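Schema walk-through. Below, the input block comes first and the output block second. Nothing else is stored per chain. Lengths vary across the set, and this one has 478 residues.
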Amino acid sequence: MTRFGPDLNNRRGLLQSAACGFGSLALSGLCAEEASAAAADAARPLAEQQPLLPPRAKRIIFVFMQGGPSQVDTFDYKPLLEELDGQELEFRDARVLANTGTVKKHRVMRPLWKFRQYGECGQWVSDLFPHIAEHVDELCFLHSLHTNGVAHGPSTLFLHTGATNLIRPAMGAWVTYGLGTENQNLPGFLTIGPSAANGGPRNYANAFLPAHYQGTAIGRAGQPMAEARIRHITNGRLAESAQRRQLELLQGLNRAQVTDDADDGQRAVLSSFELAWRMQMHAPGLMDLSGETPATQAMYGIGRKETDDFGRQCLLARRMAERGVRFIQINYADNGNNPRWDQHSHMEKHAIHAKATDQPVAGLIADLKARGLLEDTLVWWGGEFGRNPFAQNSDGRDHNPKGFTHFLAGGGVKPGLAFGQTDEFGHEAVTDKVHMHDLHATLLSLLGLDHERLTYRYAGRDFRLTDIEGRIVRDIMT
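--- output ---
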């Protein structure tokens, strides 16, 4: 009888045959471990991820100034505007060029507020921001930003998503996709008081990224922050034990329905229920500011009519940063068609908005530094564009996407630095220009993410926040 294998009737033959299966057993074990890890990752889609690069910051607090603050009235001092105030000169107005392609004459308009130098760095700041001015040695000013879009809607979308008209994920969604969150009991991306206008929920949406990475809104623009809540976070009808049993029953039924080919929405709902349960135990305490000392609350301007609302937003952002939320957005915004900093006439209204935000933002920076959080928290302040150095409607300024200022603090940026320049009128970025794609690439790099490798395949193409552009501005990094 011909044999094609070992003789299994003796010990040597049995071992010879069985040995071939040991590798299979090991492989089976490894596959089981990988399957178990994959299942765990699927159950915890926001699990903390290792950054691709050495990170300088762990999280971002974005202070969004909706409407476009005027750089020449705030942080970009141009003495020539005083000298030539009232003169008619030719300017390449972005809106006129977009509509007619012509260059027109406009009346130069001086800043309405005096500028002074502050700190060891000697940064010029107008009288609009006396509190922020006290912290200029902690700030890194970017004076040469330029962006896409000349209207609020496109430019606001570009600021948040890197695209002016397409459905793209918000930056906070990209960050949580790349890094997850440090706290599994809270979302990785929270936005406080977002506006329903100029992009609305698209400014904090996940778009084609898995639904786990969308931003969670707290309140809405125009609603007093003292009343703002995360919707549906509490249940006043059932005891905790009853809610737990209810959740376990519901999740058991859901898991029976979620098969291997379940879509993203089904899986997101399953994990969102579990996250919502954990948030019920932790978020209410996060939202309660009553435990903060009177001195801390006063630092943010809480209790004063002009600053109470935005001060609460800023203090809440610090509490989120302490608890490991990865991307936190504070919105100084409203839901109307005329955003707050949008002074096409009556530029003096800038003073109202500066008074509402100056002390709270300064308080946030000081508080983060005092608690040792500024080292690994990147504070980012700015609007969707700036404003022109010439008059509109006699006493206002139109939109200017060609040259404007943002500032950063903490999180690996050089303090006391003024980077880049606009021209002598403060109109167009001319030196060390920083496009919004460049800023996005730089912010991601500070978090340890490579903007060229942070991609997601959708509709046959690899998408990224910076599209096919963006360069890292290394000169502002420590």
